[in-house]
Design brief:
Layout lengths: L1 H7 L3 H19 L5 H26 L7 H18 L7 H24 L4 H19 L9 H8 L1 E7 L4 E6 L2 H17 L1 H11 L1 H7 L3 H27 L11 H10 L11 H17 L7 H35 L1
Antiparallel strand pairs: 1-2
């Protein structure tokens, strides 16, 4: 009974319930939601925002807000693509991932130094570095849409399996890049669940002063968070370019608000200290279904933005209400 009450105080059951109800509604209206090709298309659409959301969730749990990860991903991907094309590289794609991750780590380290070293506000810093990276890409590099090297092109064509819809005559491929998402989820789960570093991330978000008094090295933990988020963003940039089979310098820009909304919708507290990968993944899934599948029940694309915005407002409002209620219960217990 107690565990049931605790579960109902979290956001995950409600988001999962919303996904289930929406899925049933779309299936009843269209008969196409639970078809293999539609589910594969949804999984494909989730890969990039889910990768971004892992880093965003770590940042928000630590009490910060990062809006620079799309710019980091775009610049890291574009520089990697330009270098590999100019050198006529035809080796394994792992070099592209390593280069982009390294570039992303350097850009993330800039955020980390300013935030952890100089104690500047996270939102201000990442807004500034985002503009810096975008300006460098578009101004200095004169970025434009370019092809990808052969290794990334071949990687983009790799698939785990195909799902065929005989009724519509459509076939959808499950991209191999989803394995990168699963690997990132497992890695971050192990860090947050079983390491002192993970405990430190939650402790900093809960109360930075108390975390420091407890013995956590706040500056080093914050540095790790922003370096890791930057490296993951670089990897995500290569994932996107390989799946699209071209390097577009701007098609990742503007995703930050949707990703952050998905993280908060999944139960991560904006003030820090609370959040799970399960909730984050559910939040991404719900917004992906809203943006991709409403057309199946005859709702025009522009209306999907209205529904998505309404879900974000309601979901984040519920999360905020749960946080306020939790604080009131704690205050009442202390008073008693």
């Amino acid at each position: 009974m107690i565990s049931l009450k605790r579960s109902l105080r979290r956001s995950e059951p409600y988001v999962a319930g919303a996904i289930l109800l929406l899925s049933i509604l779309i299936q009843v209206r269209s008969g196409q939601f639970f078809t293999g090709n539609n589910l594969v298309d949804l999984a494909r659409s989730m890969v990039v925002p889910a990768l971004f959301s892992i880093g965003a969730m770590m940042v928000i749990v630590s009490g910060g807000i990062d809006v620079s990860f799309p710019a980091i991903a775009s610049l890291a991907m574009y520089i990697t693509d330009r270098v590999l094309l100019s050198s006529n590289y035809s080796g394994p794609v792992i070099l592209a991932y390593a280069m982009a991750a390294g570039l992303g780590l350097v850009m993330g380290a800039i955020n980390g130094i300013l935030i952890a070293g100089f104690r500047l506000p996270t939102m201000v810093v990442t807004l500034g570095t985002s503009s810096l990276f975008i300006g460098f890409m578009q101004g200095v590099l004169a970025a434009s849409e370019t092809p990808v090297p052969p290794s990334m092109l071949a990687h983009g064509k790799e698939k785990l399996f195909s799902a065929y819809n005989a009724q519509l005559g459509l076939s959808s491929d499950m991209p191999a890049q989803i394995l990168i998402l699963l690997g990132a989820l497992v890695l971050v789960f192990l860090i947050l669940r079983y390491t002192m570093l993970g405990r430190g991330i939650y402790a900093i978000g809960g109360d930075e002063t108390s975390a420091q008094r407890t013995g956590f090295n706040v500056a080093k933990i914050k540095m790790f968070i922003y370096c890791f988020t930057g490296a993951l963003a670089g990897v995500t940039g290569v994932v996107r370019a390989s799946m699209m089979m071209n390097a577009h310098p701007t098609n990742l820009l503007g995703m930050e608000m949707t990703v952050i909304a998905a993280v908060v919708l999944g139960g991560t507290r904006v003030s820090g200290g609370v959040g799970t990968l399960t909730g984050t993944t559910l939040g991404v899934a719900l917004l992906t279904i809203l943006s991709n599948s409403l057309i199946l029940i005859g709702i025009p694309t522009f209306w999907s933005r209205v529904f998505t915005g309404a879900v974000i407002v309601v979901g984040t409002g519920v999360t905020a209400w749960q946080a306020i209620s939790r604080q009131r219960r704690v205050a009442a217990r202390r008073t008693a």
